[in-house]
Write a structure and sequence with these properties.
CATH topology: Immunoglobulin-like
CATH architecture: Sandwich
Low-confidence stretches: 18-24
Strand order of the largest sheet: 2-8-7-4-5
Strand content: over 45%
CATH class: Mainly Beta
Distance between the termini: 55 Å
Number of strands: 8
Mean pLDDT: 84
Order of helices and strands: HEEEEEEEE
Helix content: 10-25%
CATH superfamily: Immunoglobulins
Protein name: Lipoprotein
Structural class: alpha+beta
Number of domains: 1
């Protein structure tokens, strides 16, 4: 009986730690302006990605924009170097077109690398409609 309690406590502790790490993905230092969460975008229109990165007394050295399906198929990816030393805000603007065969839920991820090696991440789910 005691062994079951210990195992249950270990499982609960692991779930709590995993929950905390999940929260680190949504960085308050990255604000995605477009697309909005769960916004429906027609695949005949250009998908406009707009975001701001505010690195709080650090500098952005590079950032990556990735859009992928729920099945982890990458439909768009761009990596940009950034000579942004001393800039308090980095503006991210990118657009692309992608023709989907059927309406699909997709996930935008913006990842920024700072000069101290820290990674910032923000994820936004949206829909590409056929």
């Amino acid at each position: 009986m005691e062994k079951k309690r210990v195992v249950m406590l270990c499982i609960l502790a692991a779930m709590a730690i995993a929950g905390c790490k999940e929260k680190e993905i949504d960085s308050p230092e990255i604000s995605v302006l477009s697309p909005k969460s769960h916004e429906v975008i027609n695949d005949k229109d250009s998908v406009r990605i707009e975001a701001t990165i505010t690195p709080n007394d650090r500098s952005v050295t590079s950032y990556t924009i990735t859009v992928q399906t729920k099945q982890d198929k990458v439909i768009f990816s761009a990596q940009r170097g950034c000579d942004c030393k001393g800039q308090s805000e980095v503006i991210v603007k990118q657009s692309f077109m992608y023709d989907v065969g059927k309406t699909s839920d997709v996930l935008l991820e913006i990842k920024a690398i700072l000069d101290d090696g820290k990674e910032l991440r923000e994820k936004v789910a949206f829909v590409l409609a056929d």
